[in-house]
Design goal:
The complex is a heterodimer of chains A (285) and B (268). Chain A is of the alpha/beta class and 285 residues long. In chain A, 42% of the residues lie in helices and 18% in strands. Chain B is mainly α and 268 residues long. The chains are: A alpha/beta (285), B mainly alpha (268).
Chain lengths: 285, 268
């Protein structure tokens, strides 16, 4: 199993673009075989299921590489690591052979109750060591390098001593995990509590970024909600264009989880990403 | 980990306790235009909405009957009383039918809707059927080789996607009517219980009305009564249970998907 969608020795000559796999789109995907390089499965929707959803996932896998993206590892949590949950992920990964396994830099449970939301961490040295230790345990168990995503946030804890990007980079270096850089999440956090998105991206070691996520937010007036129910916004495309111009092609995923549009809309978004990547590659050459 | 755990405990308690304001939060940094209360409400709303959305997905027929607003009110109370215990949100809401039973009992405005708890049970069974494991192939050849004496000790296994439901209300008709049309004709009450079996066929849960005898066999089989015990229980309960017809039918429908031999020891 690869440690991520690309490694230094395996960088593709063309950028890899994918979209999130949703059951409403599967029949169309199987029938039309769209020009995409991979699909991302929401791992938690496939762990206990059999029947139709499982069949769909395997049919898509026959034609495309897939990645597994979960929300339940609670990498920043203080409950014991849930190895029963990880065992299910490991079994699924054995069957699907994903290009990578990813989760989030956050916590999602407390005393065995689950939030089903990505809860914020304080950016402290203690948290860096704690989270890194847990990520290493998870990586050892899954026998792969994890890819860990930055989350959108609506607050920061006063006890934080690091900037978020410092925290993310430190965890990646200490644990050995790769980074899934969600540009929409960075932009949402910028709006919600004055994070400097450009400074954020500038300070992320790009050689540790295995994948980029692009998604849409919902404008709530006084704040942005990371709702994953809209097209990628113009400012986020701008961040992506800037990142693409500074890096070799990092695999990019279009994420759309709620109020699903027709599949053609996701394809349009994917094509836009591909154009930006191609343009950046052409400029570098 | 001490400070991190303390922060997470404080944050968690604050998220889950709707009666507290932002003073319950760990100290936050300044920055941006939102107040601390607004920040807290964003997380509370997101968490609550995810759970309510999951419930509305699972109990969509109940939501249609109750209306989006009233269903949301009930779902919110359920959410506060029942934090999720699994990473899989698709599994959230297993105890909602029991919650509905208590709710209907305690809310006189629902006196004309006594069927709602059973309807919720049906919707739960449909969801669980969809998500159940695939069944192994039934080894008919092995069954044919068993001694006659072993038949009495057979405990049949019901399909993983199979559920049975008994209701004093026409929940099958109520559920079906709300799948197909916005205008629902009046459905009359029934004078004897309705027996339903929900099983997955071609990846899709299907609801079947069954006779009482078949329901009885499946109900006893799910408690792992052997074939011999089924015969004895039928006599004891004075039930007319044509096992010789029902068992092959259930196997043919793949509602029985396996068996095991259980030797029960009797005291002399």
């Amino acid at each position: 199993m690869q440690s991520g969608p690309s490694t230094d020795s395996e960088k593709p000559s063309t950028p890899r673009i994918g979209v999130g796999l949703r059951s409403a789109h599967v029949n169309e995907i199987l029938a039309t075989q769209p020009d995409l390089d991979f699909f991302e499965l929401l791992t938690d929707n496939h762990l206990n299921e059999s029947g139709y959803a499982k069949q769909q996932a395997f049919l898509v896998r026959q034609d495309y590489p897939v990645s597994l993206h979960s929300v339940g590892m609670s990498l920043g949590g203080t409950d014991p690591i849930d190895f029963v949950y990880l065992e299910k992920i490991k079994a699924l990964a054995k069957e699907l052979e994903p290009v990578c396994i990813s989760d989030h830099l956050c916590w999602t449970s407390f005393e065995s109750h689950h939030a089903h939301d990505l809860l914020p961490l304080p950016y402290t040295e203690e948290a860096v060591h704690h989270v890194s230790r847990r990520i290493r345990q998870v990586q050892d168990f899954l026998e792969t390098t994890l890819v860990v995503e930055n989350v959108s946030s609506y607050l920061e804890f006063a006890c934080s001593t690091l900037k978020e990007w410092e925290f993310l980079a430190a965890v990646s270096i200490e644990s050995g995990c790769k980074i899934l850089l969600d540009l929409n999440n960075i932009y949402v956090s910028q709006y919600n509590h004055a994070v400097d998105a450009q400074e954020y991206i500038r300070n992320i070691p790009l050689d540790r970024v295995a994948e980029i996520h692009l998604a849409g937010f919902e404008h709530k007036g006084s704040y942005l909600l990371d709702a994953h129910n809209r097209r990628v916004s113009a400012p986020v495309w701008e961040l992506y264009r800037g990142l693409a111009s500074n890096s070799t092609s990092i695999p990019t995923l279009i994420e759309w989880d709620n109020e699903l549009p027709p599949f053609s809309v996701l394809l349009e978004e994917a094509e836009q990403a591909r154009r930006y990547q191609q343009s950046a590659a052409d400029n570098l050459n | 980990m001490h400070q991190l755990q303390s922060i997470q405990r404080q944050f968690w308690d604050c998220l889950r306790n709707r009666d507290t304001n932002a003073e319950c939060l760990p100290p936050l940094s300044e920055g941006g235009t939102l107040s601390n209360q607004e920040r807290l409400e964003i997380y509370r709303n997101t968490m609550r909405s995810a759970h309510i959305r999951a419930l509305a997905g699972m109990y969509s027929c109940s939501e249609k009957i109750l209306g989006e607003r009233y269903f949301r009110q009930i779902a919110t109370e359920y959410y506060h009383a029942n934090p999720a215990t699994s990473q899989d949100l698709n599994l959230y809401g297993e105890s909602f039918p029991t919650f509905m039973l208590d709710w209907v009992h305690n809310h006189p405005e629902l006196v004309d809707y006594p069927y709602l708890p059973d309807l919720a049970k049906l919707e739960l069974a449909i969801e669980q059927s969809y998500r159940a494991k695939d069944d192994p192939d039934f080894d008919f050849d092995m069954l044919a080789t068993l001694d006659e004496g072993d038949y009495r000790n057979i405990c049949f296994t019901l399909g993983a996607s199979l559920s049975i439901l008994e209701s004093a209300y026409p929940v099958y008709e109520i559920w079906t009517a709300h799948q197909e049309q916005d205008e629902v004709e009046v459905i009359g009450s029934i004078d004897k219980p309705q027996y339903l079996c929900i099983a997955r066929e071609n990846f899709k849960p299907v609801i079947h009305k069954v006779d009482q005898a078949s329901w009885w066999v499946m109900e006893k089989t799910s408690s792992c009564h052997t074939f011999g015990e089924l015969e004895s229980l039928a006599q004891l309960e004075k039930m007319d249970i044509p096992l010789q017809r029902i068992i092959p039918e259930l196997i043919h429908k793949r509602w029985i998907c396996g068996y095991k031999i259980i030797a029960r020891h009797t005291e002399s």
